[in-house]
Design a protein that fits this description.
Layout: E1 8-13, H1 23-28, H2 47-56, H3 68-78, H4 80-90, E2 93-99, H5 111-118, E3 122-127, H6 128-138, H7 145-156, E4 162-165, H8 182-193, H9 204-221, E5 225-229, H10 247-255, E6 260-264, H11 269-278, E7 282-284, H12 287-293, H13 297-304, H14 323-346, H15 352-370
Parallel strand pairs: 1-2, 2-3, 3-4, 4-5, 5-6, 6-7
Helix pairs in contact: 2-14, 4-14, 6-7, 7-9, 12-13, 12-14, 13-14, 14-15
């Protein structure tokens, strides 16, 4: 099968916003920052904006590289539901794994609706920190928190295919990787729950408790643990999200036979590749980096493929809010993977059959194995 037609498993994405968007809102969703572009400039004038105008415009029956205003006018003419359907179906997705903890469920489409629009199965990935915060909002005594979190996580993940932590956004990776004691957790919960309302969970003890409780469930259920690493919004401190900082945690989770999947990783995708090469339980993708580097996405993907085993790399878009990002990620992944592997074939580094097999592994087979998608 030509790589351009390869069905993909998007192993990490989010829901899209259901309604129509004005220019300010749209631009806010194509930039990881929290602020509008400086006066007189536009977030369209970035690699991701250029890539959207180049690759997404034809899906809306526009010529390539229309002006931002023309692009958004056509989007409005079609309406949000038609736009979502066109991009999600054109992405050629075999399966979507949708992480649901980023924002309130009412703000984005559910995994079931996403799957319907994409004409593909959609499964949920549960965010550990979102479960902890839901427990806190529901009202719980500090002494009961450890058990309440464990029960809530088990219920939330009953039908999930994976778990995720965003500890990268809650202080970074420089934390003690060992499990905290029950006494430490109860004391930390008392400090957290004494605030009205409890803020988002940032206490290192509670974050560690969430990860280790999640790891036990992952071990028992055969679920992988996704870990955001590297590039993201300014809520994180970039150098503290280098996946190599979690080497001791990776070793410990390996003893539990828990698979770790580092997401995005840029600019630390080479460090993630190293971890994937030397630890049997580590996998990774370059995720949203493909969308946000646009014309340079091929170089990022090639660097990720320098060292890591082909059985350890996955595809994801990390698309959120805009269906364009689900489509664009798939286009850039297929195009650039085809270019990389085609170069290897031309240089007699591998055969065409081997190139097809490698593409199959990265595009779908690894995700199907790691998330046990063929196990019902």
């Amino acid at each position: 099968m030509p790589i351009g037609e390869l069905p993909l498993v998007d192993h990490h994405c989010h829901g899209v916003v259901p309604g129509d968007l004005d220019r300010r809102s749209f631009e806010g969703f194509i930039n990881e920052g929290f602020d509008p572009a400086p006066q007189g400039t536009s977030h369209f004038d970035a690699p991701v904006g250029l890539a959207i105008r180049r690759w997404c415009a034809p899906v809306l029956e526009l010529p390539t590289l229309p002006s931002p205003d023309r692009y958004l006018a056509r989007r409005a003419e079609l309406g949000a539901e038609e736009v979502h359907r066109r991009f999600l179906r054109s992405a050629g997705l075999e399966t979507l794994l949708v992480e649901t903890g980023y924002t309130a469920a009412a703000d984005v489409l559910s995994p079931a609706v996403m799957g319907s629009l994409a004409a593909a199965p959609a499964h949920e990935v549960v965010r550990l920190e979102a479960v902890a915060e839901a427990v806190a909002r529901g009202g719980v005594e500090a002494a009961a928190y450890p058990d309440a979190f464990a029960r809530s996580l088990e219920a939330a993940a009953a039908a999930a295919v994976g778990l995720k932590t965003v500890v990268a956004y809650r202080g970074g990776f420089g934390f003690d990787p060992t499990p905290p004691s029950t006494r430490e957790v109860v004391d930390a919960a008392a400090r957290w729950l004494s605030k009205d309302p409890p803020p988002r969970v940032e206490d290192p003890v509670l974050l560690r408790h969430g990860i280790w409780t999640g790891a036990e469930l992952a071990r028992d259920r055969g679920l992988p643990l996704q870990v955001h690493a590297g590039y993201g919004d300014p809520d994180l401190t970039l150098h503290l999200t280098n996946p190599s900082l979690l080497t001791d945690l990776v070793r410990a989770l390996g003893k539990l036979a828990v698979d770790v999947v580092f997401l995005h990783c840029y600019p630390y995708h080479r460090e993630a590749a190293y971890l994937a090469a030397v630890f049997p339980n580590v996998h990774f993708d370059v995720g949203q980096a493909l969308n946000y580097t646009g014309p340079s996405a091929g170089r990022v993907l090639a660097e990720a493929m320098e060292l890591a085993p082909f059985t350890k790399q996955l595809y994801s878009s990390d698309a959120f809010a805009l269906a364009e990002l689900h489509y664009l990620g798939a286009v850039l992944f297929r195009r650039n993977l085809g270019t990389i592997l085609g170069s290897w074939v031309r240089r007699d580094e591998c055969s065409a059959a081997e190139a097809d097999r490698i593409a199959e592994l990265l595009g779908r087979a690894n995700a199907r194995r790691i998330y046990r998608l063929d196990h019902g």
